[in-house]
What does this fold into?
Amino acid sequence: MDNQLLSLLSPSDSKLLTPYFKPAKFEQHHVLFEADEQIRHVYFPTSAVVSLVITLSTGETVEAAMVGSDGVVGASAALDGKVSLSRGIIQLGGEIIVCDIDALKSTALKSPNLLSLLIRHEQTVYAQAQQSAACFATHQVEARFCRWLLRARDLSGSDNLPFTQEYLAEMLGVRRTSVTAVAKTLQEAGLIKYARGKIQIIDAKAMQRSTCECYGSVKMLYEKLIGPIKK
It folds into this structure.
């Protein structure tokens, strides 16, 4: 399947769950669920990318984790988490396989392999959130900007990313002026091209040299817990 976790299902688990899979297409910025809201479905992205976002009382937002075809959104609810801890929003529009939450829970409780896979995946999401907290506290905006774009590129499989400066500023938890300054610097260095609402990554290898250690750390933890990310 086009989702890495689903491709790792055993034939028996896949047979049990497939009748409950419903392919759906979601547009960019669509909200899947709000924080502290009961989750009724589990989402396995195939081409879409989802941001898990924390919203503060001031209205400011910051991204805690990003999930694409490498994972699942809402699995903790299927494991009796019941309510969401963050807002789930479509970062990049595309296809998602939606699964009934009760079906996934029932199958997971009967399958040690599936239960282990879901728990390990939730560990990767938690690890992302931890890494993001450390990154926000210690790393410069340019390094964080590069890390975020590279992660979005990895999950979308595209060098062309439809992000506005306002959206990037929200996800990074910084002022728009900071994003503008970084985008200008990277464009002048030949790493990206930026037009209104669109970013094209020109030199990904150079961006990897400009990013912080968090980019590699998140990938390493995923591969340790789940396995190599499929291209």
